[in-house]
Structure formats: structure tokens, C-alpha cells
Amino acid sequence: MAEENGFDSNHDHMPNSDDTLVTDQCSVSYMTPWATVVALTTCYLLVILWICKNGKKMCLPVPDSLFPYQKQLKQLKRDLSRYLVEDNCIEIFGSPLAQTPQGTLFRGTIIPRVKHRTTERVPVAVKVSHPNPKYSVALLEESARICRLAHPNISRILAVSQLSFTVLRPAVAVEWLAGGNLADYFQHQIRDREERQRPQILLRDVLEVLLQVSAALRHFHETLGDVAHGAVTTENVQLTSRDLRRCTIKLSCLYPPTTSRLPPEIVCSTERNPKRRQESDIWMFGVLCWESMTLGAEPHYQRTPEEIQRCYRLPDRGLTCPQGCPLDVWSLAMECLSEAHRRPRFAGASPTLVDRVQQLRNYYIQSMDCLYPVPNIGNCTCAEHKCKKVESFDRE
């Protein structure tokens, strides 16, 4: 028993190799406390730097008006990341050009991304949203949709201010062409000039412009699905030059449409903000055809919204066939102004609206037929409307 007890006592006092290793490691770590001090100091410094950088954002709560859009804004920032520029890269000057549903339209310039020796600023149109999160997000969504388009006849987004997401007051720079827009061309180059000073406008040149507009709308509808352009007007048809025979057009979304250019399903709707579908673009393209054939006449000139609604019941929708317009071209315009389910489509089964415009362009490619401006004739003679003066375009 003694031997057994002695054996047991000796066994209890024998050192274990694992315990010795752990003890040695602990003693070594306790002997070098500077590693712990350095590690903790580094962590404290990193925390302090992070608080200094993000402390203000961390302390400020998200406004109630912005909270519903947080996830949406993150996605929009990712979609527009390659267009973000510093705020001082976008310059705005002059008075506003127009008021849009999302904000205000200005002329401006931006610093080009590719530096040249001259470092000239590029002229652009700048959209600035209203100080309301709803309109700001709507403008950013519209910009993100346009960035998905890649077509030579569609105006591009050139830059988006970084402040669009920090203060949620977007400023979006859109391509602006040197030739102005088609509405200004008709007004200043044709309607404001005397007969001998006007350039000769051929039917085939106008059909070429309409063909480019239809090609842009086909790409728009094919790429974005049910999303409509919503503003197919002469003001949004930009020209690369003021020579209609050689210019290239680009369709933009800068100016809002007037009531006289909207389809019946929008004007007669009881909803506050009715949804605009692709059929609306087709109606507005028909009105654009009429404006082009009249060389800039105002549709439903001086008519009230009630009078415009009554015109929708007429066979020609209140837009008479202009002098010099071929019947096949006029027939296509009237099809665009028919009921929504009867209107031709830009995309889908052949022949599309693009195919039909191209057939007309090819048919009149050698034609020397000219178009002449049609005067705006109104019934109002009141002095406050300044309607006593009626346009006259007498041909010599």
C-alpha cells in the first residue's frame, strides 16, 4: 500500500508537458506587454478617425421625408456612379429655359472629362430638381433610364453632380447640340423671316428628320419596355446644325409637352397624374408630323382645353391637312392620331411605324417638292391676348 501510495504521490507531482508549454507561452506574453499596448492604441486611433469622419452623419437622424427612398437612392447612385462629378464642374448661367415636372431647366457648361490643351467647357442643358425628395428621386430615375439607352439619335447624360446624393438636390447635365431644337429652327429660320430670306425646305428633308425621330423612339420602347418618352415635341428634337439637309437629330427629354400635344387619354383623364404609355408617344409623333409639315404651326392655336377635347371628336382631330402635304404622309399622321388600340407601333410586328416612315422617305428621296409655313389662325381678338395680329406668309 505504501508503494502504491508513493507511486500515486510521485505521479501527482510529475510535470505535464502541455501545462509547461501553456505556462511558458503565458509568461512570454506577460513579459512583453508592449504588443498589447500597441494593438489597443491602434484600435483606439482607428475608432477616433472613423468618428471624426462619420460622426456628423452618425449623429444626424435620417429625415422622415428621405427614409422611404434610402434603398432606392443607393441603387440610383450605383447606376449613375460613372457620371458623378464635382459640383464645381457643372456651371449654370442665364435665366431658366423652362419649368419641368421634376425641376427647372437651365443652360450651362461642364468641364470635359478628357482634358484638351484648350480646356474649353462643353455647352449642356442642366436640369435642377425642385427641393422635394419626390421630385429629386424622379429626376434621378429619369436620368438612370436615359443612361441605359445607347442610340445615335438620343441625347446622352453627360454628368451628374455628386451633391445629387449628399443634399438630394440633383443637377443633371444633358447633351446640348449646336443647332438648337426644331421648334426654334422653324420659328427663327422660317416663320420670322421674309419669303426671300427663308431656306428652301424640301419634303424629303423633313421625312428624314421624322425617320430619325421614329428610330430613336423605337430604341426607346424596345429598351425600356412599357416606359414612355412622354414629351415627343419639336422642342425636344435637337439639331447638330441649322442645315436641315445635312443635320443629324437627337431626341431629348428636356422640355415638357403642352396640353395641345397630349393625347386624349391624358387630357380627358380624371386622374391627377395619369400614366403615360407608349400609345401616348405615338399620338405625339403624329402631332410632330403635322407640325413638321406646317413648318412650326402651333397645334390647336388659342384653343382652351375644353375646345381641344371637342376637337378630338372630329375626323381630323382639329388639325387640318396642310397645303403641300402628300396624302400618304397625311394618312400616316392620321393613323397616329386614331384611337389608342388602332395606332401603329414603333416596336413589334412588321411593318412598324419606323418601316412605314422609311418607305415614305425612300419614295420621296428624289422629290423636289417644297413645304411652306402655315399661319396660326385664331378666333380671339382681345387686346390682352395680343391676338389682333394674324401671321401671314404670302409667297412671292
Automatic annotation (TrEMBL):
PANTHER family reported in the protein's UniProt record: PDGF- AND VEGF-RECEPTOR RELATED, ISOFORM J (PTHR24416:SF600), TYROSINE-PROTEIN KINASE RECEPTOR (PTHR24416)
Domain annotation Protein kinase: ranges: 91-353
Protein name according to UniProt: Protein kinase domain-containing protein
Listed GO MF terms: ATP binding; transmembrane receptor protein tyrosine kinase activity
Any one GO biological process: cell surface receptor protein tyrosine kinase signaling pathway
Record-level GO cellular component terms: plasma membrane; receptor complex
Organism phylogeny: Eukaryota, Metazoa, Ecdysozoa, Nematoda, Chromadorea
Keywords assigned: Membrane, Transmembrane, Transmembrane helix
Top-level division of the source organism's lineage: Eukaryota
Transmembrane stretches, start-end: 31-52
